[in-house]
Amino acid sequence: MSFGVRTDEIRTELVVEVASDPLQAIARLAGSGLFAGHVVYERPGTWTFAGGVLGEVILEPGTVRTRWADGAETARPWTGRPAAALRDAFAEAPWPAWNAYGWVAFEFSCPQAAAPGQRLAHLVVPRAEVRIEAGHAVVTGVDSVEVEQVGKLLADTTPYPVPAPAPVDVRVADDYRERVAKALEEIGAGLYQKVIVSRRLPIGFPVDVLGTFLNGRAANTPARSFLLDLDGFQATGFSPEVVAQVCADGRVMTQPLAGTRAFGLGADADTARRRELESDPKEIFEHAVSVRTSQEELYGVCDPDTVQVTGFMTIKERGSVQHLGSSVHGRLAPGRSPWDAFEALFPAVTASGIPKPEAVDAITRLDEPRGLYSGAVLTLSHDGSLDAALVLRALYSSGGRAWLRAGAGIVTGSTPDREYEETCEKLSSVAPYVVRSR
Length: 438
Fold this sequence. Notes:
Blueprint: E1 2-7, E2 12-17, H1 22-30, E3 38-43, E4 46-51, E5 55-60, E6 63-67, E7 73-77, H2 82-91, E8 99-104, E9 121-125, E10 128-133, E11 136-141, H3 144-155, H4 176-188, E12 194-203, H5 209-219, E13 224-230, E14 233-239, E15 242-246, E16 251-254, E17 257-262, H6 267-279, H7 281-299, E18 308-318, E19 321-331, H8 338-345, E20 353-354, H9 356-366, E21 376-381, E22 386-390, E23 394-398, E24 401-410, H10 416-427
Antiparallel strand pairs: 1-2, 2-11, 3-4, 3-13, 4-10, 5-6, 5-9, 6-7, 8-9, 8-21, 10-11, 12-20, 12-24, 13-14, 14-23, 15-16, 15-22, 16-19, 17-19, 18-19, 21-22, 23-24
């Protein structure tokens, strides 16, 4: 039911009472085919759907491409900081107010390690946006007909079908233990303190990404969730942590998680694993050094007197696993931007290692190119706000191929068998809920 419509020269706004739960409403929009591409982003209490492309920024090694509403595409070289290249590209957006949605690859932090033809970032300003909160949706778009179509979809009471999953086996033979052993050798030689080594798990059938999102979201308790389809690249995931949250007033928060045990095995088993997690010296060390690194990173972009840790080493339940978690806060120093904060915190310490430059270098040797895995899905706005979710516990699909990926933090005291087991625990946040494409 429509509560109000506002139209101006640029966009139409419609307020709608959502007839179903937000997950169903978002699925109906994503599955409608109304838009050629879309990004879904869930924050606590808020679901956002960004449909179609009004403007676009694509970052590649050495080149940034922009396309705005007039259809003209520009491609120009860039050097130096990739975050600065994105900042400068969005500074040329032809609207006084805009929101953008998209993704950043892990190799954003090390463009020289990108695979041939790989994108470092893909962000779009959508034709239509839907924000659902407390049973109501605000629909904003540049085409009044599209806005009305979206409103009708939101008002639909027909249940959206949830397809049955085809669970994926996560225990397959690979070289993961050997690569963990190599990382332990390098840690023993003093090259770094911690590194995340990951496993890529191919799926042997085409996947229904939206169906996987529906099944997986019902079974997970993420800090953020997302679903995206841009230029044929699809992904969905249930992010356990926030890389960077920047408010319009300059407040910054990051949420390092480190230390993992299985969850969802029954009350007694979960409690036992929690106690084990809270008392394991290896897990406590891994978490403490991650929090310290996040503090140091915020000291570089925030007023040092504002940097603080809250909720130190509390348990965060994330689907099939539980983690040790903390939050680190600060306020941007004068002259610092949201992109400065994102760049300081990216890649997330819990998905790269310590010291971060040496760990990233090790990852380029121990792992194949990661792409979106351990990168970020993010939303940003003209007002200086930014919210970036760490991409873990996710499904990826491109060119008819689909895969999962998970890693574990390797520190002194790690063992190849335990780290392999940890990747299985993490993969199990998504693997049981994968849906085969019909």
